[in-house]
Amino acid sequence: MSRSRVIPIDSSDLSLRDVADVASGFASIRLAEDELRETVSHSAEVVRDWVDQGRRVYGITTGFGSSCDNAIPRDVLEQLAVNLPRYHGCGIGPLLSEEQSAAVLLTCIRAMARGVSGVRYAVIERMAELLERRLLPVIPAIGSVGASGDLTPMSYVVAVLIGEREVYVDGEVRPASILSDLHLPPLSLGPKESLALMNGTSAMTGLMCLAWRRAERLARLSAALSAAAVDVLHGQAAHFDARIFEAKPHSGSRLAARWIREDLGVENHPDPHGGRIQDVYSLRCSPHVIGALLDGLRFAKEVVEVELNGSSDNPIVDPQRREPLHGGNFYGGHIAMVADLVKSGVANLGDLADRQLALLNDPRTNRGLPENLVAVDGDARVAHHGFKAMEISASALAAEALKLTMPASVFSRSTEGHNQDKVSMGTLAVRDCNTILDLVETSHVIHLLALCQAADLRGIGSASPRTRLLHEAVRQRIPINSADRRMDQDIATLLAMYRADELPVGEDQAR
User: Fold this and answer.
1) Residues in the chain with pLDDT < 50?
2) Looking at 58, 87, 281, 331, which residue is catalytic?
């Protein structure tokens, strides 16, 4: 894959898009070596001085968590640093994808490059090389409560640096020991380095960057499909008149309404036509549903980018005063909050698509289309049921997505000897968000298949601009449903096209 954009890692901030582009392989990073080496070496030197002085500093000369009162003899400090990732090697569940692992690794690099974590430049350099060569840590998804950061998931990053556990190599899971054969021998970690890498929010933040980008794209797809639904159902384009959205100017709703007008090929102030004076809410209110997510994403972007570009481990090193700052920056409450917000907005898009699909199938609401969009003529048509079961599948997807919208942050649990007695559940919130995205993206491609079927039944020549573009792309790979047949393969094909950005859903992005 060609990576045309190079993103510097220096004193400037990363954006959510930067993380998504690097994780997906569309961009690479470049360490500003001279600047970073000076910045991070100072704090690493301070940590070494603390050790030499025998200073009592959490996780450097003491045990971890509720064991923080245990003084650690100097001659076993190296063992302490290695044992931390080892005893956190208890992750379970599905593995993060290579893209997700890359996002986690980049987020960790960004945090360490702030120069207040006591990590040597060599450690950052090694992580950057792993990212550049796509030798990515294999990370189980489950095992973090979101404070003290993402200890268990991030232990898999540290383990790879010391030559343990597994890495992705050319898409395959291989023992991390293979890195020595690739001229990347194990690192010996200094005091605080394993703690700094693990005791932060890099996993949840990296995953949230990818979830945010997916939600942004999904909002645009939802607008395109809503426009197509209005088109094939002969709905009122006047519901999207710009003056309506100037009267209550939520920026997200205004943007969604503009997208729908453009997709329908109408002016800012389209005239109402004859027929029903007002469409049902799933058509008429679609910009408001989509707009709520867009406005939530704008807020989420601000919050996540603060987390992305901050230092979230503990203790923080004040290199000027040479003091340790013991605190709680590892607490993932902000990520939990925005993940819970975004996942509710995304689930509402799934509900919207489900309702629009029901309109298409029902002869009482589909303005003259065949029941269940059956494209069979003659007496045999009653033996066919078209998109009836597709509606059931979309409903099942919507229900499951809506079920997962319970805020994860309210499920805080006391753990680890009651040291971690109030935790964020931020990583769980982000995992829920990604699961909801999986479900709702799938419901949207089911809806798109139904819209293309309806456009064929209406006559594609009379369709609006976006409907024609989408129909053409879909029909290049998936034929019309001219008689009852399995459609699971159609769903899988179209979902893969969407995720590969092969569908003309519109160029505008939320800002």
Assistant:
1) 1, 510-511
2) 58
